[in-house]
Specification:
11 helices, Four Helix Bundle (Hemerythrin (Met), subunit A), 2 domains, mainly alpha
Length: about 200
């Protein structure tokens, strides 16, 4: 990657961290992002970390970074077979993303129902999702024990560290969801809705 392109991408990331809206950064640096692959982005994020960007700050703005890079990542032709481990991890990630979207839809639906008796089917679906999320632990362990060490072996240490932070946060949320769904009843339904 040319030094100029690298410095422009670093500047885009710095602007994101300074609070410039993602769409504005995306538009300003559109030409720079064209043709930039995920490995190049990971290397740049690694360099920024080495230059002092804190891991916590990188984690907070992960979604913003993804909004910027999503188009480029989706355009990449990875040319991997469905049976390859990375393909399996990507498919699992899609499934978990869909589960999270389903949970948000159910939570929004439950918020509008004032009596637990009329929400029992939706609460039951949340219970199933909570169970499915508990099963997703295998996915995170595969990433942490196989994918992350491979990235680290090639000098990419900060993106896996940030993803590990995300995994820890997800684990906390899954635990809260498990506890919440175990205790729902007519007496605490309003508290359940708010917590959900």
């Amino acid at each position: 990657m040319s030094g100029d392109k690298k410095s422009q991408i670093k500047e885009a990331i710095r602007q994101l961290h300074a609070g410039v809206p993602a769409e504005q950064v995306k538009e300003r640096f559109r030409a720079v992002f064209e043709g930039t692959d995920s490995l190049e982005i990971a290397k740049i994020e690694q360099e920024l970390a080495e230059e002092g960007l804190k891991r916590e700050d990188m984690r907070k703005l992960c979604d913003v970074h993804m909004a910027i890079y999503k188009e480029q990542i989706e355009k990449q032709n990875l040319n991997i077979q469905p049976s390859q481990p990375i393909s399996i991890l990507m498919e699992e990630h899609k499934i978990m993303t869909k589960m999270a979207e389903d949970l948000v839809l159910l939570a929004n639906k439950i918020l509008k129902i004032n009596d637990v008796r009329y929400a029992s089917e939706d609460v039951h679906q949340v219970e199933h999702l909570a169970s499915d999320f508990a099963d997703s632990e295998k996915h995170y362990l595969r990433e942490e024990n196989v994918l992350f060490p491979m990235l680290e072996k090639h000098g990419i240490t900060e993106p896996p560290a940030v993803m590990w932070m995300e995994h820890d946060e997800i684990r906390q949320q899954k635990k809260k969801l498990q506890e919440l769904i175990k205790e729902v009843n007519e007496a605490n339904y309003n508290a359940f809705k708010n917590d959900l």
